[in-house]
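Q: What would this complex look like in 3D?
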Amino acid sequence: MPLTKDQQLETYRRMQRIRQFEEAATRLYETGKIPGACHTSIGQEGAIVGACMALRDNDYITGTHRSHGHPIGKGAKLNALMAELMGKATGICKGRGGSMHLADSSVGILGESAIVGGGIPLATGAALSAQVRGTDQVGLTFFGDGASNQGTFHESINMAAIWKLPVIFFCENNGYAITTSVADSHGQPDIAKRAEGYGIPGVIVDGQDVSAVYKVTAEAVARARAGQGPTLIEAKTYRLVEHQVGLNTQGDPYRSPEEVDHHIKHRDPLTLYKTVLLKAGISEAALSQIEADVAASVTEAIAYAEESPFPAAETVYDYMYSNPINYPPQYSA
Amino acid sequence: MNTVTKEPTTQQTHKKINFMEAIVQAEIEELQRDERVIIMGEDLAVYGGSALFNAADKSRLRSLPISENSFSGLAVGAAMTGLRPIVDLTIASFMYLASDQIINQAGKLHYMTGGQMKVPVVFRCSMWHGSAIAAQHSDRPYPMFMNAPGLKILAPSTPAEMKGLLKSAVRDDDPVVIFEDNALWPVKELVPTDLDFLIPIGKADIKKTGSDVTLVAISGCRLEAMKAAEALEDEGISVEVIDPRTLVPLDKETIINSVAKTGRLVIVDSANRTCNAAAEIAAIVAEEAFESLKKPIQRLSTPDVHIPFSPALETQLYPSKASIMAAVKKIL
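A: Here is my prediction, written as structure tokens for the whole assembly.
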């Protein structure tokens, strides 16, 4: 079923939220307000939001070191995410995760793994859990083209295929694992073709076309909920920015300025979707209002983060372990 | 036989079983108690596991393809979303394949998500040394995992401990890794049949009281340590034997209190010598109870060498009754 008008506006809103949040994060990183490393998904919003719009609130997601887009795409509030980027006590992970690990369980994010491919088994396990518990929840794991060369990709797809687990393997193929191109690291360029080797459907979709991503993901989710097993989706997408804010690569550029420029001018998923919405009869004013609302939310998130305290040093051990079990009295001595 | 006369008084509450039977009994009881418990393992039906198949629906018993890292990750994901998996990794040397998901995900996610996620998963593995199966099947890798914060590390040494600690591990909200010593498999003893028989994680057990020397024996080392302690007793040397049972969190208090009494400490650990559990215990006692020590701490470990195939080479490597007795006498 295609997105309703309200859903289309929500889709645009979420894409804008990712873009504006990350543009702000880039500025804050460059001015030293955000420590550590900062990887943005600018250019990949269509793939992320298209996938997330096909999920329910109680479905499960795992993501990657490029972790801001997934919770925002799934509908997370921005304040605690921005506070986390700044390492504040009010951050979504209480200052224990940071930019690469913006997991927000309130929108179903189990974890954002900075170990490449590390989140793939987790979402597959969440799907196993849903199957055992008899719910119709699904798991969706975002990973990149680089992760498709990890054993976890192959092993997890195989187990999902054996047990027909309700999981969607969603590859954001942006063409480069940092600087290593797909051509230099894959035997053939289409990661989705690997699905056939495991006996599951593999789908290639234009990741810059959010409507198309939504459509194929919704189909995969429906199959999963119906007990028909996993799907591998490969969204061909593109990073419009560098792998990491401030990354300085040596030698010849791994992608040409012309290539990057072409994508910025012609393949920006926000621009493409805006054109679609205007053609569909949605007014320029309505979209401008969304953009302004999002800008206000981002401004509020920055203020919230800046005003929040840093975690107290003595709290460093908090969250190492959960509370111990309650032993029956005769064994608690 | 003396033992026969003892049993009628306990048969209502205890059953004499071996280490392997204790594992299966604990798993069956927990499967039946809590439908969130599932068991995932390679070749589940081997080594007595077939009894599990009558205990739960097939969907809760998963025989796995040989993909240690990812199936461990599946268990972590299932644990975060409402199940309580027990993962049987069979041989401890395979823990290295699984270690990324155990260390980087299971052990870290509660912390890295600021407490949003809980990971109630149990990983079990058996340490098959002394069995002529060479270096890639004979490791005792618990010290490496002790160095990975966020995990609870168990090393039971009796059937009752195995049962009580495994049941506690299943009910614990944190990831627990259990290292089981295959030297213990033939050991039989009376084990409580109470469905809620639990041994607290983080509590050591004094296996034998004594006043001259404290002997800390980890996991299967308890067997040789007890033989040595009894032989020393015959010679008039009073040895206190402590089984830590849990390596993380370690029950420092029981060890330090014992050393305060005896003034002497020998630690027996079948892991390789460098940075092993014995090294950690020795460091703790040196830091926190140095004034109690009358003589230098002695460590008995497997040397830093690969486990060879030939029994002619292998047998000499592990701490034995004789080497333990010699170490004790050295510091008297």
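A: To summarize the key features: DSSP finds twelve helices and 14 strands in chain B. The longest strand of chain B covers residues 84-91.
Q: Very helpful, thank you.
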